[in-house]
């Protein structure tokens, strides 16, 4: 564990806490893409298949349970909670995310570290996480103004993988046979997808204005 | 062959 990875995990945790706060405090999921939440649920379920077989540390196991539990809880809330689901706007959350699932799985079948069930699903989860934010970013562009909690959620979610990139650089220089090129390339793509959001978020923060993404 | 390194990252 290094400071970059710990900062990344904490930033990721904060993004989840901000999202949970928004949904439970406001009893509303306006501005949140159910499709992105479903993709994240698939990402965590596909990545943490080793949850009960490989014990790394208490921290690792607890964080995996938190990530799986929170993503499924948000999906459940947006689909079935009688108050929250009323604020879900199906008409703006129209990204065809099943193509992302199919495409990433196909890619994982061809590009992986080892052709085994666990490794293919792990590579699939890495590729899927890189593009999972797309429905959410498209929804924000469509819905124009972005409420503060939703904006902070996306900001922290985008920042966490940026910290992981620093972690991979650090590990590359400090560990001899460290090679996570699948994670690194996907992590770079994932963080790059947030670039324009980061730019408009910074502009709105500098001008102390409401965050607006150009359509 | 060399076993894949354990995935210790989240």
UniProtKB/TrEMBL annotation, chain A:
GO terms for cellular component: cis-Golgi network; endoplasmic reticulum; endoplasmic reticulum membrane. The keyword Nucleus does not apply. The chain crosses the membrane at residues 56-77, 98-115, 121-141, 153-173, 179-202. GO terms for biological process: protein retention in ER lumen; protein transport; vesicle-mediated transport. Its main location: endoplasmic reticulum. It is found in: Endoplasmic reticulum membrane. The keyword Transmembrane applies. It is a multi-pass membrane protein. One of its GO terms (molecular function) is ER retention sequence binding. Keywords: Endoplasmic reticulum, ER-Golgi transport, Membrane, Protein transport, Receptor, Signal, Transmembrane, Transmembrane helix, Transport. Residues 1-25 form the signal peptide. It comes from the Eukaryota. Pfam families: ER_lumen_recept. Belongs to the ERD2 family. This is ER lumen protein-retaining receptor.
């Amino acid at each position: 564990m290094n400071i970059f990875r710990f900062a990344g995990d904490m930033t990721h945790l904060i993004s989840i806490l901000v999202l949970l706060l928004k949904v439970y405090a406001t009893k509303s999921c306006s501005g949140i893409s159910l499709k992105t939440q479903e993709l994240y649920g698939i990402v965590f379920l596909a990545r943490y298949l080793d949850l009960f077989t490989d014990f790394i540390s208490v921290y690792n196991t607890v964080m995996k349970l938190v990530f799986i539990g929170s993503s499924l809880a948000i999906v459940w809330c947006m689909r079935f909670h009688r108050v929250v689901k009323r604020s879900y706007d199906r008409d703006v959350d129209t990204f065809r995310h099943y193509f992302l699932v199919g495409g990433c799985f196909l890619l994982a079948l061809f590009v992986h570290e080892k052709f085994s069930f666990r490794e293919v699903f792990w590579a699939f989860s890495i590729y899927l996480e890189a593009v999972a934010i797309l429905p959410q970013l498209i929804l924000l562009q469509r819905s124009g103004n972005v409420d503060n909690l939703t904006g902070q959620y996306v900001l922290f979610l985008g920042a966490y993988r940026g910290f992981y990139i620093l972690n991979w650089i650090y590990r590359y220089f400090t560990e001899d046979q460290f090679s996570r090129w699948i994670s690194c390339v996907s992590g770079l793509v994932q963080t790059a997808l947030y670039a324009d959001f980061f730019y408009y978020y910074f502009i709105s923060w500098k001008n102390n204005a409401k965050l607006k993404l150009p359509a | 062959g060399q076993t894949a390194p354990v995935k210790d990252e989240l």
